[in-house]
Amino acid sequence: MLATRILTATVGMPLIFVSIYYGNIPFHIMMIVVSFVSVQEYLAISKKYNPHVLISLIMSAAFFLFLCFFKNFSVDKIALSAIVMMAVFFGIEVFGKNTDLSVGRISTSFLGSFFIPLSLVHMVYIRNLSCGRELMFFIFIVVWVLDTAAYAFGKVLGKHKLAKNVSPKKTVEGAAAGVIFGVLTAVICRYIFMESIFTLREALIFGLVISITGQFSDLAESLIKRDGNIKDSGKIIPGHGGVFDRFDSYIFATPVMYYALKILK
Description:
Strand content: under 5%
Strand order of the largest sheet: 1-2
Number of domains: 1
Number of helices: 10
């Protein structure tokens, strides 16, 4: 199992880094695939609610592309997109044959169609910034280090459960180690390749932001999996589970990071 995880990471990490490095079409393609597969896995996890899978996938893909390529979108257009999606799902239920658990189907379908693409598209927004390549490397490196530190220290030193009803193996000690190593990594990245982009104070702040929201994002996905009574979101990545599993830390981390950059930079 460990050998499989290492082999997959050896192949996958360079592909991610290459797409980040070149940006534009390669990065857009990667994120479109990530968003689509994540939504697909989420809908499979939530199958007990019988979501509208095909319609949700079509709308999630269309919404992601809309957010990527229509540069002059506004909050009004995003709100309109949400209203259109809800109208479609309500229409299916209103004119359908079975109204039992209809609100559950609408809610589950909407979460997949709207929230997941909206969250993940912020990775594209960050990559499109003037220093987007460095920022994306920064975010990925910090997340990978903090995840590893949280897992390792939680396994060795963990005694107090962080959210035992959601993820029994995650501990307060592991989370604290994740924050410490995440912030340290942010500072190291600043001195290695981001000295012209971040001050030391900004590196500390952004490292803290990613470390906290990244771990919260992981717990959010764990809540979804717990509700679906499964361990991994999928099996598409050997030894690592699903795409949603690998990108769960970015669900809240990248939107919060994007708006923190807007405020502080």
